[in-house]
Amino acid sequence: MMVSKDAQSDQSRIENEYFPILFEHMTEGVALHELIFDENGKPVNYRILDINPSYETHTGARRSDVKGRLATEAYKTDDPPYLDVFASVALTKKSARMETYFEPMKRHFNISITPFGPNGFATIFTDITDQKNKEEALKNSEADLLRSQRVGRMGLYHLDIKHGLWDCTPTLDEIFGTTQNPKHDVNEWTELLHPDDRAKMLDYLSNHVVAKKQSFNMEYRIIRRNDGKTIWVHGLGELEFDENGDVLTMFGTIQDITERKFIEEQRSQTERSFTMVFDINPNPLSIADLSGKLLKVNNAFTQLTGYTESEALGKTSAELGVWVSPPREEVFSPLKTTSQFKSTEVVIRTKSGEYRELIMSGVLAEMYNQQVVIVATTDMTEQRRKDKALEQKTAELDRYFNLSLDLLCIANTDGMFIRLNPAWENVLGYPLAELEGARFLDFVHPDDMESTLNTISDLSHGAKVVDFVNRYKHRNGSWRYIEWRTAPYEGGIIYAAARDITNRIESAEKIKRLNEKLENRISLLTHPDQTVTDITFADIFDPEEIQKIQDAFSSVTGVASIITDPDGKPITRPSNFSRLCDIIRGTEAGRKNCERSDAALGKADKTDGAVIYPCLSGGLLDGGTSIKVGNRHIANWHIGQ
User: Fold this and answer.
1) 203 near 226, Cβ under 8 Å?
2) Where are the alpha helices (DSSP H) in 14-60?
3) 49, 278, 388, 611: least surrounded by Cβ within 10 Å?
4) By mean pLDDT, which of 64-73, 204-213, 625-634 is the weakest?
5) Are 467 and 497 in contact (CB under 8 A)?
6) CB 470 within 8 A of CB 449
């Protein structure tokens, strides 16, 4: 194709005059590049031939720093940025466009790439970082809005009233249980309405909102499409009008308020229950504001104070004249720090002038849209009178309990002492502190344990026990005989009165033994020839009385004397024994020899007469005789040097 000289001249002028002007004054950043090839002809880098001032503005790089440099040097990267795209444009001569985030500069760019020269290309770009940030912010805002709608269970809608169509956000579809369609029909909303609310809501929308051009504000029920669950929603809407004032659309929100409705219903039920309990409570109750003015009182309050409800409401206790002591400010002061006060003793004066003793507790609460004090009161007047009378009676019983000479006891059927009177210390020798709380079975004689357990069993079944006797261990190791009279009580408690009959028992045993001895003595003395196999010297004679006679005999005659059993064991203590005898009898071997010697005397005495023989220990001469009852040898009487 032939090109005229004028055309060539115009082209030359554009390239040499106009292009530099355009290049220097373009608002877009422009850079001219040429590809760099390896020995195989493969593009491996590119050189920046020139940049315009806008390049410097957009990138912050100076022309002197990048002009003539390789891309990897200018941008300080290991690989030349976007080499594959740029090489494709330079080699195929086909322009391209792209948006990218350039990490070295932390910027977003919109880049147009066009061929330039044999192996070159030009990049024309704009910095779209601000635009991208705004888009990202908008995207985040939309995401936040959607999240907030989901969290708040609230969706947005736009209703085209003229055409009966509406669209909504995904959250509203989730609330309604509907599928996400670009447009919903009004009939679909109508079908969602709870049957009991449908007529009311349609009338409200048509005759109030649209006809009267009012905002939409209503709580109502729907039946979710996907699961049939009934939920409560709160709808709000603002109308939009055309230039003639006719209704066009309505924009608004719908929020799932099912949980709030449930809480409100629970609160309502709680308030109803509170009111019912408040009114029927047998204890006086009142509710007052922080200034002390009564807002609510129950029947028990009016009965206690004598003031009717109408007389009490709106007045403070000071205005009614019921408060006596302590100062009300002192009683209510803990409310400032702990929001409550507990079990405080208070005195009031009723309308009739009677003084009453109360126990009062109070707590701060939120009611009637304000902070109030709920006060519960217990009238202790009659109880205090009863307590005082009981204290007097108890003091009297305690005096009797502590002064009684009998053993008084409170125990249980588990075998534990609960309370004892001081008489027990005298009888068993233990301090009361050791006895009370201890197991009384630990003190019972082993031979009496079975009968004691049987008696406890009888008591646990409600039986009374009279004159039961068992033995208890004294602190000194001896045993005391205790005679009981007990009665069971509810809860396994045993009340008992007892006496120490040890002396009585021992006296009876002693009398019994003396009687038996006396009978034996009489029998043996009056019938000495009768056969008796188990009689002893002590059964006939009192050893202590014989001792006195023996001591007197030795003192008068100057001889030694002792009475032994047939085996040589002493019955009486030695009288007037010589020092030699005391030394011999002081050793184990000597004592045994003396006993054999004394026993031999009885064996040697076959004629019921006196015998003289040398003793087996010291060779001294002893004399003596057997003591017999009938044919029974019961003792030997020895005299000697």
Assistant:
1) no
2) 19-25, 53-59
3) 388
4) 625-634
5) no
6) no
Query: What does residue 227 show for φ and ψ, rounded to 5 degrees?
Result: -130, 0
From the list 375, 373, 367, the residue with the least C-alpha distance to 304 is 375
- In Å, how far from its chain's centre is CA 591? 78
Q: Are 604 and 611 in contact (CB under 8 A)?
A: yes
Residue 641 near residue 560, CB atoms below 8 Å:
yes
CB 189 within 8 Å of CB 170: no
Strand order through the sheet with 216-223: 184-185, 165-168, 154-160, 247-256, 230-241, 216-223
**pLDDT tier at 176 (50, 70, 90 boundaries)?**
very high
Phi, psi of 115 (to 5 degrees): -65, 150
Q: Are 98 and 124 in contact (CB under 8 A)?
A: no
Q: Alpha-carbon distance 319 to 305, whole Å? A: 13
3-state secondary structure 271-339: HHHHHHHHHHCCCCEEEEECCCCEEEECHHHHHHHCCCHHHHCCCCHHHHCCEEECCHHHHHCCHHHHC
Q: Give the tokens for residue 168.
A: 């909504």
User: What percent of the chain has pLDDT above 90?
Assistant: 39
Report DSSP state, residue 252. Answer: E
446: Cα separation from own chain's centroid: 46
The string of DSSP codes covering 547-564 is HHHHHHHHHHH--EEEEE
Query: Average of pLDDT values for 468-483?
Result: 92
Strand segments, DSSP code E, in 117-269 are 120-127, 154-160, 165-168, 184-185, 216-223, 230-241, 247-256
Sorted by sequence, the CB contacts under 8 Å of residue 492 that are 6+ apart come out as 412, 413, 414, 460
End-to-end alpha carbon distance in the chain: 185
Most confident of 341-345, 515-519, 534-538: 341-345
Distance of alpha carbon 479 from alpha carbon 446, whole angstroms: 11
Query: How far apart are the C-alpha atoms of 111 and 21, rounded to whole Å?
Result: 21
Give alpha helix (H) positions in 527-607.
537-540, 543-557, 579-585, 588-604
Tokens 């449908």 label which residue? Answer: 198
pLDDT given for residue 619 in this prediction: 72
Residue 361's contacts (CB-CB under 8 Å, 6 or more residues apart) are: 340, 341, 342, 343, 344, 375, 376
CB count within 10 Å of CB 148 equals 11
CA distance 157 to 188: 14
- Per-residue pLDDT tens digits for 439-449: 988 999 999 99
In this structure, the number of other CB atoms found within 10 A of the CB of residue 2 comes to: 4
Query: pTM here?
Result: 0.38
Average pLDDT of every residue of the chain: 85
Q: How confident is the model at residue 490 (pLDDT cuts 50, 70, 90)?
A: low
Q: Which amino acid is at 30?
A: V
Query: What is the spatial distance between Cα 157 and Cα 226, in angstroms, rounded to a whole number?
Result: 19
Residue 149 in contact with residue 169, Cβ under 8 Å? Answer: yes
> How many whole angstroms separate alpha carbon 376 and alpha carbon 282?
10
Residue 415: left if φ>0, alpha if ψ -120 to 50, beta else—which one?
Answer: left
Cβ distance 406 to 394 under 8 Å? no
Mean pLDDT value of segment 454-470? 84
CA distance 284 to 296: 11
Contact present, 554 and 573 (Cβ < 8 Å): no
pLDDT at 88: 93
Give strand ranges (E) for 392-477. 407-412, 417-420, 465-473
Tokens matching residue 541: 């004679």
